[in-house]
Amino acid sequence: MSQTTEKPFQIGDIVMDNRVVLAPMAGICNSAFRLTVKEFGAGLVYAEMISDKGIVSKNEKTLGMLYIDERENPLSLQIFGGDKTTLVEAAKYVDENTTADIIDINMGCPVNKIIKCEAGARLLLDPNKVYEMVAAVVDAVKKPVSVKMRIGWDDEHVFAVENAQAVERAGASAVAVHGRTRVQMYEGKANWDIIRQVKENVNIPVLGNGDVESPQDAKRMLDTTGVDAVMIGRAALGNPWMIYRTVQYLETGELKDEPGVREKMDVCLLHFERLMQLKGESVAVREMRKHASWYLKGIRGNGKARSAINQTETATELRAILNGIVQEYEQRESEIYVPEQKEIII
Ligand SMILES: Cc1cc2nc3c(=O)[nH]c(=O)nc-3n(C[C@H](O)[C@H](O)[C@H](O)COP(=O)(O)O)c2cc1C
């Protein structure tokens, strides 16, 4: 499938450069991470889910989550809520007060706190409710609206096609489908066959999501399901190269090398500096602990550095540890790089 001859991936009037999309991830997809991933070529980035009630009540922390750097667009901003009135009000706020290109409604979050509010994956049990919520938001805003959903609640309640058709009928411009049920949480395998069925039964663009772990997986997802774009979540954690390598692979068929240690640590540091600007030193250092350990994946002998990172409280210490990893690696470089094992030894 040649990428150049196909019609571009488009949601409403927003045209993307390619079909590789960063998934929304709570606690991860803030502006610092999104911009970093964007620079690795993502066609579209999703922001982490944001509470409708937090927006409507103008909660300071929630409003801070709406920050978008102008270099990130096109960007989809995801809201969640189980009450139509507040969902619509929050969508209007996002429509009028942010530079997001697309407003996405979360219908996939499996956690109890969200389900109890009739939000997230709870909505998947009732296609009529899906229609009602989406139609109300579409009517209230100018920006294109999309939905990200799971395939269903449990094996007995897989209403993926009905729900996606309700989303389309309600006037939404796209639907993203994660091929798991709510009950599966993140266990088992994502069901790409149901994603294919959704694609065959709606006319709006469909984004396929779940278990895309390599550029080859992304191509397989596009080829076997016919979706308009692939959405990548966990494989991009500490690994924006996954996005770059996937874009390259889809466009040219070439599989680019994995990054080396210096490159990994340089990007980790850049991500950290951005997080510092966004959230200040103390929060950024704590949040960066999990990211740093993801960036360190594949570097053998990283145990010492990981535990040091988990105890660090200051930016100076964190920078020193990350730079130390590069120095240690470069001293021993000649003996050690083993690309076939996808592992770098320090
Ligand atoms: C840490 C984490 C946070 C997530 N937060 C969100 C979220 O805010 N909104 C959402 O729709 N999905 C969320 N998801 C689900 C992902 O967007 C995606 O559907 C899921 O991880 C499957 O894709 P993957 O196999 O590429 O990771 C989250 C997943 C993870 C791992």
What is the topological layout?
Elements: E1 10-11, E2 14-15, E3 20-22, H1 31-39, E4 44-46, E5 50-51, H2 52-56, H3 60-64, E6 75-80, H4 84-97, E7 102-107, H5 112-115, H6 127-140, E8 145-152, H7 160-169, E9 174-181, H8 192-201, E10 206-209, H9 215-225, E11 229-232, H10 241-252, H11 261-279, H12 281-295, E12 299-300, H13 303-311, H14 315-331, H15 333-336, E13 344-345
Parallel strand pairs: 3-4, 3-11, 4-6, 5-6, 6-7, 7-8, 8-9, 9-10, 10-11, 12-13
Antiparallel strand pairs: 1-2
Helix pairs in contact: 1-11, 4-6, 6-7, 7-8, 9-10, 11-12, 11-14
Residues 23-26, 28, 48-49, 78, 106, 108-109, 148, 178, 209-212, 232-235 line the site of flavin mononucleotide.
Q: Would you write up a description of this structure?
A:
- Pfam families: Dus.
- It comes from Lysinibacillus sphaericus (Bacillus sphaericus).
- This is tRNA-dihydrouridine synthase.
- This protein is an alpha/beta fold.
- The chain folds into 2 domains: 14-252, TIM Barrel; 261-336, Non-ribosomal Peptide Synthetase Peptidyl Carrier Protein, Chain A (Orthogonal Bundle).
- Helices cover 46% and strands 15% of the residues.
- The chain is built from 15 helices and 13 strands.
- The protein has helices spanning 31-39, 52-56, 60-64, 84-97, 112-115, 127-140, 160-169, 192-201, 215-225, 241-252, 261-279, 281-295, 303-311, 315-331, 333-336, and strands at 10-11, 14-15, 20-22, 44-46, 50-51, 75-80, 102-107, 145-152, 174-181, 206-209, 229-232, 299-300, 344-345.
- It has an 8-stranded parallel barrel, surrounded by 7 helices. Strands 1-2 form a two-stranded antiparallel sheet.
- The protein is globular.
